[in-house]
């Protein structure tokens, strides 16, 4: 066995031990990549070979995490701890540390088992250990209505089928928008702006149960720009995703041959202006469908631009929806993760900390 394989097998055994034994210690989040090791780098290196996932390996709604599991940056069974996922997205795709933690702790608060500190990147699984009491879901990233939501680019809305499974018909639209609007047929900022606007327009007409409110609106708009930042080879780094590279990540869930990650860590300060740019081109108001083509605006849900209120909505509405009155170790674990999550929104956005339980 290669050394990296041994490490991953060992990590997987730790996860399995924890899942059987109920309660895990919660380590601090991973630190940023050390200076000098956070630059341009071959991601598809010999230590990270693509292996087709086996029948028991979990994959889900995020093309990036699926790919990182298939290339061994994440445990190949698709179950991991937050620090493993933060490290994987930093190493494989050069996410900035604060941005990686923002995504991961957000997902953990909605989709993980806080007691075992494990989360599935796909559907619900016993591999995350014994569940805390309902209404906790511990549904994994594929759990609809948490992080996963409607109007995805390469998945169908939950009303139509499995919202976590890659759908070629949907992805063909992604490619045709690149052909129609992108520079030289790439998925660029203009193609992104048009596709991101078309997706809810389509769902408004076809999905009687469309939900397009906080927090989904933020992930929908961020994920739209991720591919042209993180899936573009870092040697070019021109915000133009070729259809070949896009297909490798989305359809094959495989890091393209010779792919290099971005030349420097990418965080909020690059993602947010791009999100603003596509929003400004085609603004929308959050809402839900009451039947097909009956889009009802939701004035109480925060707007896309209201970052701190979306943070508050996750922490004060979504999390207590699953954990109304946690006690003991469960409350401690949630408070720890809430603290890690808040740390990622504190400086750049100056949000006020929200406490769903008592102050800690
Ligand atoms: C770091 C932790 C991450 C977590 C927890 C996460 C989680 C998710 C989830 C739950 C979805 C499903 C949302 C939906 O469409 O309903 C999603 C979609 C997506 N993610 Fe990730 N993600 C992470 C990192 C990344 C990174 C680094 C990229 C880089 C390209 C990425 C790219 C995408 C894209 C493009 C989609 C949209 C797929 C679509 O609309 O069809 N994600 N992610
Ligand atoms: C993919 O999406 C299309 C269009 O929304 C749908 O007709 C088709 O049944 C989906 N395919 C699968 C395998 O779900
Ligand atoms: C399209 O590709 C050509 C040839 O590689 C290049 O010269 C041109 O600058 C590209 N156009 C854009 C808008 O990127
Ligand atoms: C996007 O489209 C605008 C016109 O709507 C054009 O001026 C601009 O150059 C395009 N941007 C790119 C990156 O192709
Ligand atoms: C952050 O918020 C605090 C309290 O609302 C305020 O006093 C401070 O000036 C803000 N700082 C920045 C950089 O916006």
TrEMBL record:
Cofactor: heme b
Pfam family, one: Peroxidase_2
Start and end residues of each Heme haloperoxidase family profile domain: 46-276
GO molecular function terms listed in the Swiss-Prot or TrEMBL record: metal ion binding; peroxidase activity
InterPro entries, per the entry: Chloroperoxidase, Chloroperoxidase-like_sf
KW Metal-binding (keyword) present: yes
Keyword match Transferase: no
Domain of life assignment: Eukaryota
SUPFAM superfamilies for the chain: Cloroperoxidase (SSF47571)
PANTHER family membership: HEME HALOPEROXIDASE FAMILY PROFILE DOMAIN-CONTAINING PROTEIN, STERIGMATOCYSTIN BIOSYNTHESIS PEROXIDASE STCC-RELATED
Family: Belongs to the chloroperoxidase family.
Protein name: Heme haloperoxidase family profile domain-containing protein
């Amino acid at each position: 066995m290669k050394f990296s394989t041994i490490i991953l097998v060992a990590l997987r055994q730790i996860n399995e031990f924890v899942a059987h034994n109920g309660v895990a210690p919660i380590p601090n989040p991973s630190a940023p990549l050390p200076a000098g090791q956070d630059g341009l780098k071959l991601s598809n290196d010999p230590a990270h070979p693509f292996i087709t996932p086996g029948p028991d390996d979990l994959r889900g709604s995020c093309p990036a995490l699926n790919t990182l599991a298939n290339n061994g940056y994440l445990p190949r069974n698709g179950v991991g701890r937050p620090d493993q996922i933060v490290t994987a997205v930093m190493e494989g795709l050069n996410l900035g540390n604060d941005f990686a933690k923002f995504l991961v702790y957000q997902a953990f608060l909605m989709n993980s088992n806080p007691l075992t500190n494990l989360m599935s990147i796909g559907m619900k699984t016993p591999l995350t250990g014994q569940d805390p009491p309902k209404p906790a879901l511990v549904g994994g990233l594929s759990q609809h209505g948490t992080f996963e939501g409607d109007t995805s680019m390469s998945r169908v809305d939950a009303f139509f089928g499995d919202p976590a499974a890659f759908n070629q018909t949907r992805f063909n639209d992604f490619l045709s928008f690149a052909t129609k609007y992108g520079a030289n047929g790439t998925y660029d900022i203009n193609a992104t702006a048009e596709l991101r606007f078309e997706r809810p327009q389509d769902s408004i007409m076809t999905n009687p149960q469309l939900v397009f409110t906080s927090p989904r609106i933020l992930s929908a708009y961020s994920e739209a720009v991720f591919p042209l930042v993180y899936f573009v080879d870092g040697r070019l780094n021109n915000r133009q995703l070729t259809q070949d590279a896009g297909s490798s990540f989305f359809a094959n869930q495989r890091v393209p041959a010779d792919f290099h990650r971005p030349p420097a860590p990418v965080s909020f300060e690059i993602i947010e202006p791009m999100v603003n740019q596509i929003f400004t081109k085609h603004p929308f108001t959050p809402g839900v469908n009451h039947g097909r083509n009956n889009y009802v605006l939701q004035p109480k849900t925060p707007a896309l631009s209201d970052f701190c209120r979306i943070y508050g909505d996750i922490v004060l509405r979504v999390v207590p929806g699953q954990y109304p009155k946690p006690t003991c170790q469960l409350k401690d674990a949630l408070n720890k993760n809430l603290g890690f999550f808040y740390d990622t929104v504190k400086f750049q956005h100056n949000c006020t900390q929200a406490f769903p339980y008592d102050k800690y």
